[in-house]
Please model this.
Amino acid sequence: MDSSVRLELYRMMRLIRIYEESILREYHADKKPSFDIAKGQIPGEMHLSTGQEPVATGFCAHLRRDDAITGPHRPHGWALGKHVDINKMTAEIFGRIAGLCRGRGGHMHLFDKETHFSCSGIIAEGLPTALGIAMAFKRQGSDAVAVAVTGDGAANQGAFHESLNLAALWKLPVVFVVEDNGWGVSVSKAESTCIASNADRAVAYGMPGVLVKDNAVEAVYAAAGEAIERARTGGGPTLIEVETLRLWGHFEGDPQLYRPDLDSVASHDPIPTYERELRDALVLTDDIVSQTTAWAVERVESAIAFAKNSPAPDPVTARDYQFA
Model:
């Protein structure tokens, strides 16, 4: 792989990580010593994707602006990878009127028509939505592609199987992505799923199924590139499962008492792993690490400042923008 591509993958992973760490800081800043999710400068629950950066990074590196993503309830990395406006995205997370949805959606319901990005807190909701987008692309004669992202827990939902069946039947330009972090909230995959890999389910729907192991960004990049090109050229859908890692809890405040792997989980962090790989290949230096960190921190802190300086919605507008 070209060194410039490897460095771009590294830069995006670092940006996502620094963004999540900064949102974590701001989320907890005014919720101490009590924890009340309804209060604070960032209201509501918070689901962060730390440890899962290779998945969004590897896929988004292949996507064009006119391609679409229907994201999961851990959406920040996918939104950043799709180049959603970081200022508007952050303002939305803070519930401010400068946000993507004027502060009404919050962090699990980001929507950006400019980059064809959406996400939902409803498990597996984005899969049938992606089919509609893919069908529209096909009928318009476009070669754009829809990417539907969900977790391993959602692969047991009816919407998952219905969507794979219809996508294969109609040969739609869609790629299904399962982020397998091993946990459906607090239930392990081994206790909820009858097969080792959800990628094996693809054969039942007549589409390729690919398992990417070890949370490796370059392996994700390779698998994603092949699947997206297949969809773009009329070859139909692909199912890809990536064995990834949830470093933190299901939600902020989750003590994770159900996890037996907590003592060792940090040693599998994909970013230090990739840094070592790039250093060994003489692609990454201390200067590049410092420059990348400074670039990411500046972007993130500027976006947070933008969000904080945007006013909250006026309560009298609560019923605005409703369809019914």
Notes: The longest strand covers residues 174-180. The two ends are 52 Å apart (CA to CA). The first helix runs from residue 3 to 29. The mean pLDDT is 95.
